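Q: What does the predicted 3D structure of Regulatory protein, luxR family look like?
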Amino acid sequence: MRTSLGIDSVARSVYISMVDRPGAEVAELAAQLKETEETVRGGLERLSALLLVVPGDSASGWRPIDPEVGLAAMLTRQQEELARHRLQVEGSRLEVTRLLSERGRGGRESVPDVKWLAGADAVWRHITSLADECANEWLTVGPVERPDAAAFEAGHSLDEILRRRGTPARAIVLESVRNDPEATERLRRNEECGGAVRTLPSLPVWMIVSDRRHAVVPVTSGRSVVGAMACGVESVTEAFATLFARLWKEALPLTEARPRTRGNLSLQEQHVLRLWAQGLTDAAAARRMDVSLRTVRRLSEKLTDRFGAQSRFQLGALALASGGIRAEDMA
């Protein structure tokens, strides 16, 4: 569980222990906290992303930043991020309002069975009404990035409705959800109640399809829902259902471990190679996969060492030659 500062309980405990015992080894920290060494290392990585620990010459390889300095800096960053997020939300609301206003004029541009929803409340009311009427099949892809708390709670309410109705539900979510115990537990409960969940390293769109008759594509700003397109056009809903079927074949069941694939690469390694081949930067790839920039750079170092590459271009060429990625992945 994360605190308001964004530090989960394990990372917080690791940080406090390191401040108390700055020279402790990972094994000592694990023993003190009664956690595994892997768990402690995961906590250290999260602390590093928050700049609460930095590489050092101590036994653990990390040095804790003074709490007053580190926490004050983190709070400042969060305040700046919140200010940027508010500006993004306001900008998106204005844009959605403008689009809705233009659509509301009707005339030749209006499309039957297509409507635009403004605001998170309107979006979730519409999706909830679809869930209340869904009888045969509920398909979900996304969100394409980890949603905010409001969206998470709304999704939980939808799960309850579908379980109560006994509606068959399938969902494709980001692979990064495996790193979130709370979200993973919720998805596994859904599977125990008859649902099915699979994961992919990144997703092309956030969409919900009800009985292949209704589709909703939420519009987000940051991690918040600000509007949506709701469509009841048969050709469009069938296209979304077809896209879901293709993604479902590629996706990995939540209950299965992440396997090695072509060239003995993990799905995550294969996917980041594909994104690089398509021209995405490390930062863009991290956003698409909903992982930290540090994770992407660690993958880069790992893959460069494995293939013996001297440059990103050479890495792509070697991965292509070894079958790690295919030519069509570069399109």
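A (community wiki): The structure tokens above were generated from the sequence. The domain at 262-330 is CATH 1.10.10.10 (Arc Repressor Mutant, subunit A). The chain is about 55% helix and 15% strand.
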